[in-house]
């Protein structure tokens, strides 16, 4: 029996870019002590007070089917949060609750792309982006950024692809994997291209609470953009609720109405007790978000101090998110070869820049997701390894 091309071509027929990660996990399964600096998983798990609220809700009986668009309380809480941060009028009718940000990304592309449409995204990119686009039957079209620009997208490069015909553009700021926070100038340029070429803008903002330099600006807040922007958010990074799988799409009311129909025929909503826990978490305000973000802010400073003492490994300005993008081209190796060498020699696992596209060739992404002492030791070892290879 034949499976559909849509499902068999999600990864484009090749590697999904996670080979080094899978290799590290096999080593761990075999009993080897590997320091994982790979995926964006908090080393400090979901706060016990959030788990307490989740437990109270479940034991209180909120374990049946929840409303498909999301509970009224959570939709209103998310709308209030977004309105406070963007000063754009937002109500529960602008919000669909989804099983995590990834489901929101998929739903947003279903809403904006017909089969065969060209859908633009920025390189470097989170590893699921092209597969998400292929999964809805659209054609993924990459727009490369450049290390010398600190991976800020150039409006003229986006326009060049948009001019060939495109339905949507997917952006991510603060950016995974680079840590780049898009500047006001960059976002104004992106918005101008979207208006000129009648593009839907899908804005992945799951790292909006992890900004170390600059300012997070939601493009939905820019002139004439609220009616052509779908914002994807999540509790995963801001509240360390990765396994809870609760996120959202914020967009025009008409788009959300159709997305509710999609959810009815796909996910059928999110567990009510998880949504109640999300409401509780949001009600704790910025203090809890800052508490969860603080370890990454601290480790970023540790990394800057270590890297300032040498000139072999370069640091792309780490303005936000829980990652560092390190330039290892001085070693003469690709990012993948360097990552494999580091793993084989020192049992430290990183993600090759090539896992996230071609723009970060010769780079590795480091997740700041182990305790400070092990993080500093691992980073120093990485630098020493790079210096040895560069000699």
TrEMBL record:
Protein name: Aminotransferase
Family designation: Belongs to the class-I pyridoxal-phosphate-dependent aminotransferase family.
UniProt keyword terms in alphabetical order: Aminotransferase, Pyridoxal phosphate, Pyruvate, Transferase
Cofactors that this protein relies on: pyridoxal 5'-phosphate
Keyword Transferase recorded: yes
Domain Aminotransferase class I/classII large: 34-381
GO terms under biological process: amino acid metabolic process
Record-listed E.C. numbers: 2.6.1.-
Signal sequence annotation: none
Pfam families, per the entry: Aminotran_1_2
GO molecular function: L-aspartate:2-oxoglutarate aminotransferase activity; pyridoxal phosphate binding
Species of the source: Shimia isoporae
């Amino acid at each position: 029996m034949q499976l559909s091309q849509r499902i068999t071509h999600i990864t484009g027929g090749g590697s999904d870019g996670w080979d080094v990660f899978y290799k590290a996990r096999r080593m761990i399964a075999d009993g080897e002590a590997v320091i994982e600096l790979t995926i964006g998983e908090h080393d400090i798990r979901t706060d016990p007070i959030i788990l307490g609220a989740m437990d109270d809700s479940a034991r209180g009986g909120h374990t049946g089917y929840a409303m498909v668009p999301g509970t009224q309380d959570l939709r209103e809480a998310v709308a209030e949060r977004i309105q406070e941060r963007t000063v754009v009028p937002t109500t529960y009718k602008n919000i669909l609750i989804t099983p995590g940000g990834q489901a929101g990304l998929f739903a947003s592309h279903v809403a904006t792309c017909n089969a065969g449409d060209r859908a633009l995204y920025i390189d470097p990119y989170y590893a699921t982006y092209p597969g998400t686009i292929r999964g809805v039957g659209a054609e993924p079209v990459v727009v490369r950024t450049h290390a010398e620009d600190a991976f800020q997208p150039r409006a003229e490069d986006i326009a060049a692809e948009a001019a060939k015909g495109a339905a949507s553009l997917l952006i991510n700021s603060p950016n995974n994997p680079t840590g780049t926070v898009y500047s006001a100038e960059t976002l104004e340029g992106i918005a101008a291209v979207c208006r000129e070429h009648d593009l839907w803008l899908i804005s992945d903002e799951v790292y909006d609470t992890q900004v170390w330099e600059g300012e997070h600006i939601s493009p939905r807040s820019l002139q004439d953009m609220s009616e052509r922007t779908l914002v994807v958010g999540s509790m995963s990074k801001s509240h360390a609720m990765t396994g809870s799988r609760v996120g959202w799409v914020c967009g025009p009311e008409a788009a959300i109405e159709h997305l509710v129909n999609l959810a009815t025929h796909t996910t059928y909503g999110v567990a009510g007790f998880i949504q109640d826990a999300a409401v509780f978490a949001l009600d704790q305000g910025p203090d809890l978000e800052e508490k969860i973000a603080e370890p990454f802010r601290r480790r970023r400073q540790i990394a800057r101090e270590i890297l300032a003492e040498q000139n072999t490994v370069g640091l792309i300005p780490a303005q936000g998110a829980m990652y560092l993008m390190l330039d290892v081209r001085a070693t003469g190796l690709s990012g993948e070869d360097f990552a494999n060498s580091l793993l084989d020699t020192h049992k430290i696992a990183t993600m090759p820049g090539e896992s996230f596209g071609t723009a970060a060739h010769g780079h590795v992404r480091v997740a700041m997701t182990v305790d400070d002492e092990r993080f500093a030791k691992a980073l120093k070892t990485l630098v020493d390894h790079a210096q040895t290879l560069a000699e």
